[in-house]
Each structure stands twice: as C-alpha cells, then as structure tokens.
Amino acid sequence: MNADPDVLIVGAGPAGLAAAHSLKRHGVENVLVVEREPEAGGIPRFCPHPTFGLPDFFRPMSGPAYAAKWRSLVDPGWISGATTVTAIGPGLETTISTADGLSMVRPKRLLLATGIRETPRSARLVSGDRPRNVLTTGAVQRLLAETHRLPFVRPLVVGTELVSFSALLSLREAGVRAVAMIEAGDRIVARRPADVLAGLILKTPIRYLSRVERINAATEDASRLASVTIEDNRGVKTEIACDAVIFTGAFVPEASLLGGLLTLCNTRSRGPAIDQSWRLGQAGLYAAGNVLRSVETAAWAAREGTLAGDAIAADHFGKTLPSERRVAIIADDPVAFSTPSFFAVPGPPLGPLQLSIRMARAARGTVTLSADARTFWRSPGMTALPERRIVLRPSFPDLANVQDIRIGFETDGRA
Ligand SMILES: Cc1cc2nc3c(=O)[nH]c(=O)nc-3n(C[C@H](O)[C@H](O)[C@H](O)COP(=O)(O)OP(=O)(O)OC[C@H]3O[C@@H](n4cnc5c(N)ncnc54)[C@H](O)[C@@H]3O)c2cc1C
Question: Which residues pair with 364 in a beta bridge?
C-alpha cells in the first residue's frame, strides 16, 4: 500500500469515489482510497430499488449498479478494500488496520468520506428483553443483499424518515409486510404522500405521537421477539404483536475518527465543520458526503465528493489562497445548522448552492440571512421539514469586512 499518498480518501461510498474520480480528472496521480468493507461502493451496494442514478447518470439504477458505476470510474489500483482507518493524528498521520495488522500512512491531504450510521436500539435507550431480530434498516438491507431472505414475517418499523419507507419497500420485495410504523411526532418526517403509500399500497398503519416503551420476548423462549409495548403522548400503553423491530433513521455522522479533534466538529450536526472549500480547521483535512450531517441522496453525496475533489486538486496544484480568517455562520432556532459551517476569507467566490440548512423542527415561514445584523436576503413561503436539505441561493455581500452571517427563520405556522 502507498504509505505517502498526496491524497488519502477514507471511505469508498459515492462521496469518496466521486472525489477520487475528480482528482483523476484534474491530474492528481498519487491517491489512496481506503474502505473498511471488502468492496467499494458504500451504502448503495445494499439498496436494491432503482432509486439511484437519475440526477448524476441520467437513468434509474439499482443501488448495486450505481455503486458499480462509480467503482468503474476510479482506478482500481487506488482502492484498498478491507482496510479500516482507526485514528487520524494532528499531522494527518493515519493509522490503518488490515488483515496484516496496523500500519501508518502519511498523506499530504486527507478527505473524510465515512458516511453515517443509524442509531441502534442500544443508543435509543429502549428497555425490555433482548430477543433476536432487533435490527436497523442497514442491517435488514445487508441481510437481504447477502441471503435474499429474512428471518421474520411481521416486523414493526420505528421511524418515518425516507429511509423508513425505503425499508417498507425492501420488506415488500422480500414478501414481508410491516405490522405498523411508529412515529414520535404528529406527522411523518419524510415528504407526504409517503404516508398514503404506506397505508394504501403497503397496508401498514402509522401510529403517531408514540414511542417504543419496551421490547418483549416470548415467555417460553427468551430469544424470540413476541411484542412491543408502545406509549402515546397521553401515557396510554398498547402492545403490538410482532416478530422483529426495525429501528430506522436517526442517522449520525460517522465522524468518530475526529474524536481527538472535537473542535473540528459542528456541535449541532455532529459532523465535521467545513468551509466553502470542504476544508476543516486543520491544514490538509477535508470532508464530504453524509459524514457532514445526516443522510442525503447518493447523488448529492457524490456531487459533494466531486466538488471536494475539485477543491483538493486546486490545493494540490497550489491554486488555493491560504485563508486568513473565518466568517462564522450562526443558525438561529428553528434552523439547526448549515453546511458549510463557516466561510474562509479569502476563499473562492460564493456562488449558488454554497449554503444549505437543516431545520430542528417542521415550520413554515421566511428564511432570512443577515451579515453583521443587516438582513441582505429573505426567502418567504418556505415549508421546512427536519431531515431535509434546504438549499439557499442568496447573493452574498463582499465578506471582506463581515464578521458573521446569521440564518434566521420567521415562523408563520407549522408545516
Ligand atoms: C437504508 C438506506 C437506503 C437508502 N436509499 C437510497 C435511495 O434509494 N436513493 C438514494 O439516492 N440514496 C439512498 N440512500 C442514501 C445514500 O445511500 C447515501 O446518501 C450515500 O451512500 C452517501 O454516500 P457517502 O459516500 O457519503 O457514504 P456511504 O455510502 O455511507 O459510504 C461511506 C463508506 O465509508 C466507509 N467507512 C466508514 N468508516 C470507515 C473507516 N474508519 N475506514 C475505512 N472506511 C470507512 C464505509 O464502510 C462506507 O463504505 C439510502 C441510505 C440508507 C441508509
């Protein structure tokens, strides 16, 4: 393995592979892409629906075909599978674990493209017994991809994000119907009419304002799941018979490699805090894709990877001005956070699509942008939902003398 690459990419999902493709196009030759799974491609490798490819390859593709397409665009000699990064030091010295043991790589630049992880039962603090078949969506999709069958027939799905409905479709393809979906809020997190699809076509009712209170094993066999007790917002408990629980969504960025460098993270998104050139506040360190904030579409993650590759190549060829200071971007409630988290000055001009936000909760109203307390942009009539990218397309003032940008939301109702 190349121990001194010009660029090390950690994670070979759509973002990492697109970044590698971009670096190649720009003529950067000495690149290493490490992936902890034996095969590159990231999450799409396990998603069978033809819901990939349209935005970037202009045709619908299954997840595995989409992953294969990105793999085919990257020099196979650059990719090292079954290779896990276990630590990144302050000077980018990177510890790598393979079947041969630990080794060290010293890249000049490093792109973190490690994606996200779903919140499993343990982190959701759900009480009760510990039977089999308590899973996440990722685990179900992997099981289906690898064995083509499921060890249950009546699962309960917790969550109503887009991925939760993706789980319903995967279940249906395996001949399994979910007995119910459980949602803590008073509407689905995904865009409507996914709720109509769940009810009418997939015949799965949604229980709103409810949470899983307890998981119950069968009395005669502690390893078999028998039911789940749910509790609604009035404290009423109901037992639902099921033989599996699938916890979906509640994604968190897989940014644990920055554990020792927490000042590099955005405390709200829990992902790396980046500037408009995908740079963290440490020389040579970049991030792109889902690791930045929670789940996006694969095409969006790949697009971010491409742009990060462009920025890294510019830096590699000495075309990037060193930044002298930061313009903080402050998100006021109910705006949860923005990507990027700050602007570097001087930096590349801020064109369209330079700022996206996520909401803490659903709201309807006007997004405002202010520079040093002077509002320079308003976007009325926004219906903003959490777990959803909202791209802002403002014209920015010259940032040369600006100290901070504030993102506000004037609410005029619930979404
Ligand atoms: C269940 C599910 C269904 C989805 N369905 C769709 C869909 O239908 N259509 C769509 O467009 N999008 C879908 N998405 C979203 C899409 O899969 C993601 O947006 C996309 O995969 C993100 O790309 P990424 O490269 O940022 O991350 P990932 O695809 O997660 O890739 C990150 C890679 O980094 C590797 N990695 C992590 N840590 C390390 C480490 N320490 N060392 C080495 N390697 C590491 C991981 O193994 C992984 O391969 C779905 C997501 C999920 C979870």
Answer: 383, 413
Query: pTM for this structure?
Result: 0.91
CB 60 within 8 A of CB 66: no
If one residue of 47, 84, 189 were mutated to test the ligand 1 pocket, choosing by the most ligand atoms within 8 A of its CB, it would be 47
CATH superfamily of 121-249: FAD/NAD(P)-binding domain (3.50.50.60)
DSSP assignments along 171-231, one per residue: HHHTT---SEEE-SSSS-SSPTTHHHIIIIIS---EE-SEEEEEEEE-SS-TTSEEEEEEE
**C-alpha closest to that of 80 among 1, 150, 186:** 1
Give the Å distance between the CA of 37 and the centre of ligand 1.
Answer: 12
Q: What is the pLDDT of residues 53-100, one digit of tens each?
A: 999 999 999 999 999 999 999 999 999 999 999 999 989 999 999 999
The shares of helix, strand and coil residues in the chain, as percent rounded to the nearest 5, are: 25, 35, 40
Contact at 8 Å (CB) between 384 and 348? no
